[in-house]
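Hi P.,

Sorry for the delay on this. The queue was packed all week, but I finally got your sequence through. Input first:
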Amino acid sequence: MKVLVVDDEALARQRLRRLLARVRPQAQCLEADGGEAALKQVQQHEPDLVLLDIRMPGLDGIEVAGRLDALADPPAVVFCSAYDEYALEALRHQAVAYLLKPVREIELARALENAARVNRVQLASLLERGEPQEQTAQRSRVSSQTHRGLETLAVSDIRCFIAGDKYVTAYTDEAELVIPDTLKELEAEFDGRFMRVHRNALVALAYVEALARQRDGGWYVALDGLALQPQVSRRHLKSVKTQLRAR
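Then the structure:
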C-alpha cells in the first residue's frame, strides 16, 4: 500500500508517519505540505490512500478531495482534521473515514483496513461482472456521521436496507450502519442490485438464498450471512418472485 500524508504542519505529518509505521510497516509513505503539492504527488506516484488534512493554506482538503473525485482512478481518502464541522461535506466525497485529531492508532488501523477492503471489493466486482467504472454513477459506499466519526460500508457487502420510524439501517454480515438516505432514494440509485420486498425493506439480489414461507402464510427472504430475515409483503410478492426467477 502506498500512502500519501497531506498536512501543512510538519509535526502532524510526523505523527501520522509514526502511526503508519506501527499499523502498516510495509506501507510506502509519501508526504505533501499542502493541497497543490498533494495533487502533484498523486499525479506522479498514484498512491492508494491519501490521509488528508482539511484546513490548509491555498487549496484546502475539501478542494483537494474534489479534484481527486474527478480522476479516472482516484485514491481512497481519509480526512484527518481537528474539527468535526466538515464531516457532512466530507460525505460528498465518499471518504473512507473522517478521523479527528489527534488520530488514534486503532482508528487509523480501522480506516486502512476499510480502504484496502474497498480496493479488493471494487477490483473483484469489475473482474467478475466486466463492468467498467465509468458505466455506473452508483456509490461504492454508503456513509454516515456517528459519534465515532465518519463511518462507511461497502455497498457490495450490504445485504439489505431496513427503514425504521425515522432512519434507514444498512446491514452487512459483520456490521450495521444508520444512514441519512431514504429507501426511495436507495431504490432508485441501486436499481437492479437491490429489490423492494416490503415498504420498509430493500434486499440485495446477489445475497438472496431463498424465498420462504412462514407458518402463518407470510413470506420472507433468507440472506447469505445474515440472521435478519426481511418480510415480503403481499403487494411485492409477485414482483419479488419475478426478479428472483430472472437472476
